[in-house]
Write a structure and sequence with these properties.
mainly alpha, Growth Hormone, Chain: A, 2 domains
């Protein structure tokens, strides 16, 4: 195996380790600093909005400079400094500002990293999965490790961990070859035409209904575990189980994903999501919540892979990039903003178990909407 692929695998491991510390433990860190669930939701919701705005900006800079590597290194270097300060700071306004900067500089590195992975894997004639698996391993193992280390030495140890992992990530990125940018801007006229079709609109309504509770779980899982007596180590265990389950089911996805069965799988995933959230609300202790994350693969992977394949099946070739962009913005952007603010308010007002019950209700509504789509499938075949 080439030296480039070995370096790329190591880069992926440490890059997604950083992502694990930021995504998995930011809500837990904010809670430890005295933030309410509403305030945590405000920080993450605002950050998600900043991330939606900053991704096209950094994509434009990368396109103009005709480089992914240099822009990526700049963003990572700034993120390492900001992230280290974030996990060593206290005070609402300081943390609010630092979190906003992280969403501006760090989150947009994800699509650049995936583009780097894909192009270098093709150039070196290895599969994308053979590279990307090391990112999943990094996310899972670092979630587990960070949780137990934070339990042993205090939550602020995450700052030094972030610095160490971040410096290794930047060093490895520096040793990788550059690749050209391949992004193609989406025209507003294309978006307008895309949303004229009722089947596409109904599909994205289902996506939003399913994405809202999914993102609420991402944001408040650690806070909920601690609210029912769990430790930071159990939070890390929950994220480890979730990431491992996701990686396993992504590897198996080709076995159960068949053309023409996408809506069936979306409906099944919606039902399983509802059962997962009800079980979480009724869980007798934090260890039960942690082990319920085994269902992450059954729910998210089945739903998301089926949704992508269904989308590609109902739209023409020239709209595939537009559809993919809208799907990503809804699932990871809009739902994150709404889920953060609304989820935080529900958590503070009615409690964590009530939040998970609301999430189950949203999943059931998504299941019903998916059933309506299934019934209309034959009638509208060929319209898009």
């Amino acid at each position: 195996m080439s030296a480039v692929i070995q370096i790329l695998r190591a880069y992926d491991y440490f890059y997604f380790s950083l992502l694990a510390m930021f995504i998995s433990f930011l809500p837990v860190y904010l809670s430890a600093q005295g933030f309410s669930a509403t305030q945590i939701g405000a920080v993450i919701g605002t950050g998600a909005f900043i991330g939606i705005l900053s991704q096209p900006l950094w994509g434009f800079i990368s396109d103009k400079g005709k480089t992914i590597k240099k822009v990526l290194i700049l963003m990572l270097a700034i993120s390492v400094v900001v992230g280290t300060l974030l996990f060593r700071s206290s005070g609402f306004f300081t943390l609010y500002l630092l979190a906003g900067l992280m969403y501006f500089f760090y989150l947009p590195t994800d699509p650049l990293t995936e583009s780097l992975n894909y192009q270098l894997a093709q150039k070196e004639k290895v599969s994308f999965g053979a590279v990307r698996t090391f990112g999943a391993i990094g996310y899972a193992t670092t979630s587990l490790m960070a949780g137990y280390i934070a339990s042993a030495f205090g939550i602020t140890i995450l700052g030094w961990m972030y610095l160490a992992f971040g410096l290794l990530t930047v060093l490895l990125a520096w040793r990788l070859p550059d690749v050209p940018t391949v992004s193609k801007p989406v025209a507003f006229s294309s978006l307008a035409a895309f949303f004229k079709h009722s089947r596409a609109v109904r599909f994205f309504i289902v996506v939003l209904l399913m994405a809202l509770p999914h993102r609420m779980n991402d944001i408040f899982l650690g806070v909920y575990i601690q609210s029912i007596g769990g430790t930071t180590g159990q939070v890390g265990l929950a994220w480890f189980i979730s990431a491992a389950s996701e990686a396993l089911f992504f590897a198996w996805s080709a076995r159960f994903l068949r053309s023409g069965r996408e809506l069936n799988l979306i409906i099944i995933a919606a039902g399983l999501y509802a059962l997962r959230y009800i079980a979480t609300a009724l869980a007798p202790g934090p260890e039960w919540v942690a082990f319920l994350q085994l269902l992450q693969g059954v729910t998210f992977v089945i739903f998301y892979t089926a949704a992508i394949q269904y989308l590609y099946g109902i739209i023409p070739e020239e709209w595939k990039s537009t559809g993919q962009m809208v799907l990503a913005v809804l699932f990871f952007g809009v739902s994150g903003i709404v889920g953060s603010f609304v989820g935080g308010w529900i958590f503070d007002t009615f409690g964590g178990a009530s939040l998970y019950n609301v999430m189950a209700v949203l999943s059931v509504i998504g299941l019903i909407a998916g059933g309506v789509m299934f019934r209309k499938k034959g009638v509208e075949a060929g319209q898009i």
